[in-house]
């Protein structure tokens, strides 16, 4: 291959690697491997060219960054939660926004449909659930469903189900992201119709204070699962400077990291739903505190902290 063609085929990639900092250690390592491959090729066919000298310098800088980013004092577990996962959230902030918008839109559609058609709630939630809840409302205990099962068994059932839904939302992204959007549609419409049902019964604020004790974390985690699915699908659809296979592997790896990272959130949400939500008589201030604390945690760990971490890493790499 002529040197000019070699440069033309790889120039955009090299410029990206030079100007755009890697957002996490795995990406940095992959960049270093690719550049050393290109350098080896250049040394073989253009040993005294400026291209070879340029690649040698770029490889040296990447090697230095790789060494500086090596976490000697932190275990792999600590690095994942403190650095790697937040940077993934920042790197894929666009997919996160799309997942949030999709879910919100479908929730609005669900609420609107329930408002226009009384049978829609039964279609989505099922006759058994609606009849049971109507009976609980008549008895003066509209949220009695959270008190019927043994708390520990309820915890296991809810945690496993939520993790299953999360995995499905991720894996369905392999169908060019469309499968993930369908999962978001189903869950969004269900939430919208479910919430409208309680508002239509005059229990809107009461439902927020009770259900969103656990729902804040649970719904946020579902949106993040949708983000993981979109990352997987977009890796297949939009490979950019990577080969399609490599882009898909990167998307699968990063999406899977999000799913793993969501497991503790789903477990905490299941604990709240099984052991806390059932206490519908708790003071309003306590419900509001749990709800707001959950929301602030999600906003901080998924949006604010990743942004600050990225800016810090960018500053350190540019020093």
UniProtKB/TrEMBL annotation:
<protein>
    <submittedName>
        <fullName>Stage II sporulation protein M</fullName>
    </submittedName>
</protein>
<keyword id="KW-0472">Membrane</keyword>
<feature type="transmembrane region" description="Helical">
    <location>
        <begin position="219"/>
        <end position="238"/>
    </location>
</feature>
<dbReference type="InterPro" id="IPR002798">
    <property type="entry name" value="SpoIIM-like"/>
</dbReference>
<keyword id="KW-1133">Transmembrane helix</keyword>
<keyword id="KW-0812">Transmembrane</keyword>
<feature type="transmembrane region" description="Helical">
    <location>
        <begin position="96"/>
        <end position="115"/>
    </location>
</feature>
<feature type="transmembrane region" description="Helical">
    <location>
        <begin position="282"/>
        <end position="304"/>
    </location>
</feature>
<feature type="transmembrane region" description="Helical">
    <location>
        <begin position="163"/>
        <end position="187"/>
    </location>
</feature>
<feature type="transmembrane region" description="Helical">
    <location>
        <begin position="258"/>
        <end position="276"/>
    </location>
</feature>
<dbReference type="Pfam" id="PF01944">
    <property type="entry name" value="SpoIIM"/>
</dbReference>
């Amino acid at each position: 291959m002529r040197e000019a063609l070699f440069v033309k085929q790889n120039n955009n990639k090299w410029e990206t690697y030079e100007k755009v900092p890697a957002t996490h250690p795995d990406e940095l390592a992959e960049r270093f491997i690719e550049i050393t491959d290109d350098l080896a090729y250049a040394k073989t066919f253009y040993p005294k060219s400026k291209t070879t000298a340029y690649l040698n310098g770029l490889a040296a800088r990447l090697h230095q960054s790789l060494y500086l980013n090596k976490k000697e004092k932190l275990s792999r577990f600590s690095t994942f939660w403190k650095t790697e996962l937040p940077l993934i959230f920042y790197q894929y902030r666009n997919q996160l926004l799309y997942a949030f918008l999709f879910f919100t839109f479908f929730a609005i559609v669900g609420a609107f449909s329930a408002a226009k058609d009384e049978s829609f709630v039964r279609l989505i939630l099922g006759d058994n659930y609606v009849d049971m809840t109507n009976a609980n409302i008549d008895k003066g205990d509209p949220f009695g469903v959270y008190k019927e099962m043994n708390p520990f068994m309820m915890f296991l059932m809810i945690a496993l189900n939520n993790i299953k839904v999360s995995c499905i939302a991720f894996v369905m992204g392999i169908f060019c992201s469309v499968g993930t959007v369908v999962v978001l549609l189903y869950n969004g419409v269900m939430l919208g119709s479910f919430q409208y049902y309680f508002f239509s019964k005059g229990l809107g604020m009461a439902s927020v204070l009770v259900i969103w004790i656990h729902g804040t974390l649970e719904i946020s985690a579902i949106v993040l699962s949708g983000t993981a699915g979109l990352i997987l699908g977009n890796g297949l659809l939009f490979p950019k400077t990577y080969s399609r296979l490599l882009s898909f592997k990167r998307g699968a790896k990063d999406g899977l990291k999000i799913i793993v990272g969501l497991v503790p959130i789903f477990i905490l949400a299941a604990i709240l739903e099984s052991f806390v939500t059932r206490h519908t008589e708790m003071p309003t201030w306590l419900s509001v505190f749990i709800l707001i604390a959950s929301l602030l945690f999600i906003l901080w760990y998924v949006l604010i902290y990743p942004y600050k971490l990225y800016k810090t890493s960018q500053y350190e790499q540019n020093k």
